[in-house]
Amino acid sequence: MGTKSKRQHLEAIRPRYRRAGKRYKTKILDEFCAVCGYHRKYAIRLLRRSPPRRCCPPAPKPKYDHAVRAVLKLLWLATDPLCSKRLKVALPLWLPYHEQTHGPLEPTLRTKLLAASPATLDRLLRPVRARLGGKGLGGTQPGRLLRQHIPIRTDSQDLTVPGHLEADAVAHCGNSLAGDFVWSLTFTDIFSQWTENRAVWNRGAHAVLAQVRQLEQSLPFPLLSFDSDNGAEFLNHHLWRYFLDRPQPVAFVRRRPYHKNDQAHVEQNNWTRVRQLLGYDRFGEPALAALVNDLYRTAWDPLQNFFCPSMKLAEKKRVGARYVKKYDAPQTPYQRLLASPHVSAAAKAHLQQQFAGVNPFGLKKEVERQLKMIFDQLRRAAP
Questions:
Q1: How many CB atoms lie within 10 A of CB 200?
Q2: Is the pTM of this model over 0.85?
Q3: Which of 32, 248, 270, 295 is the most exposed place for a label (fewest CB within 10 A)?
Q4: How confident is the model at residue 154, as a pLDDT?
Q5: What is the 3-state secondary structure (H, E, C) of the chain?
Q6: Residue 196's Cα: distance from chain center in Å?
Q7: 365 burial type by CB count under 10 A (0-12 exposed, 13-18 middle, 19+ buried)
Q8: Is it the case that residue 71 has pLDDT exceeding 80?
Q9: 229/195 Cα distance (integer angstroms)
């Protein structure tokens, strides 16, 4: 009989031994010595001994107190809200501006915030995480006029040069796609993840072309290729001629229908940059398009591009029946452009000047102010 079995047998007969009289104690003792092979005196000591009490050691004093949780909650909510791995990289960017607004932090508190791992941040933020809403309607309608002229690109090569844009449209239609409403256009650079949004009324070809023109002028890098889905807002002659009728044409390509992963970068930003900001309400007034555009250009896009890190897929391979993915270190789109040798010195200087003139907490307040204007007008227009 093994040691574990002897211990279990002892625990089973000890209560019975204590309750029994002298005659029955002798029988129990004889049985115990025969089964376990113990000396009689040693067996008596074991049976008389009180069972050991399991005492838990005192819990360690929590390292991250209420003050750390309060500052972390404020920063996390201000970042709209980032996952823990991206938040870990964003904290050094946001803390100086937080101290400008709310006063300097204690050195110990600052050290704890910066030293916390992503898993620790997840644990500290678990009580304040909010549930996100479900999915709404999609409004992509196929554009059939130029399918023979615009090639399909299915490769997912790791582009190392900025300027290759993915484009998609998001419908602010509420519960019905009938009638006219505001659409958001999302443009994402594959290399740097630099993302800009524009709003149009009823996604007409002329309105979309006007926003693409304005977008190209504001980009910190030259446009090399334009990659869209098969929606009619992009597959039209106006946009096609705009990209091809120039001394150095821009490659205009499209993705396979019903394959959202072909445009994974912009599809993800449709959620993080549009739906999490504006939700699924119906924007059925033309005046809302201008308000949403101002929100995107003046506050929302600078906040996301300068202060919100993102992760890029670095490697994907199949191991047996599953895929193993590895991601690079989180960086902001601004940091990726500054580190790229393919961005001109003049463009980098302009980006640095823009970065020096913005404050993430000021941008966040501006976002909330403009959102209040948008939803106040939305409520006034409601029947």
A1: 21
A2: no
A3: 248
A4: 58
A5: CCHHHHHHHHHHHHHHHHHCCHHHHHHHHHHHHHHHCCCHHHHHHHHHCCCCCCCCCCCCCCCCCHHHHHHHHHHHHHCCCCCHHHHHHHHHHHHHHHHHHHCCCCHHHHHHHHHCCHHHHHHHHHHHCCCCCCCCCCCCCECCCCCCCCCECCCCCCCCCCCEEEEEEEECECCCCCCCCEEEEEEEECCCCCEEEEEEECCCHHHHHHHHHHHHHHCCCCCCEEEECCECCCCCHHHHHHHHCCCCCCEEEECCCCCHHHHHHHHHHHHHHHHHHHCCCECCCCHHHHHHHHHHHHHHHHHHHHHCCECCEEEEEEECCEEEEEECCCECHHHHHHHCCCCCHHHHHHHHHHHHCCCHHHHHHHHHHHHHHHHHHHHHHCC
A6: 17
A7: middle
A8: yes
A9: 17
Q: Rounded distance, CA 261 to CA 214, Å?
A: 28
Residues 139 and 183 sit within 8 Å (Cβ to Cβ): yes
Taking 80 as the threshold, does the pLDDT of residue 136 lie above it? no
Of 139, 151, 342, which is closest to residue 252 (Cα–Cα)? 151
Q: What is the CATH code for 164-381?
A: 3.30.420.10
Q: Is the pLDDT of residue 380 over 80?
A: yes
Pairing type for strands 164-171 and 225-228 reads parallel
Tokens read off for 47: 């049976």
**Spatial separation of the C-alpha atoms in residues 88 and 126, rounded to whole Å:** 15
Q: Is the pLDDT of residue 142 over 50?
A: no
pLDDT at residue 133 in the model: 44
Cβ atoms of 183 and 170 within 8 Å: the answer is: yes
Given the DSSP bridges, would you call strands 322-327 and 313-319 parallel, antiparallel or unpaired? antiparallel
Domain boundaries, the chain: 3-48, 66-126, 164-381
The pLDDT-based confidence of 317 (bands split at 50, 70, 90) is confident
d(CA 227, CA 99): 41
Does the CA dihedral 144-148-150-153 come out positive or negative?
A: positive
Contact 271, 179 (CB under 8 A): no
For the chain, the C-alpha Rg in angstroms (whole number) is 32
pLDDT band at 170 (very low <50, low <70, confident <90, very high): very high
142 or 258, higher pLDDT = 258
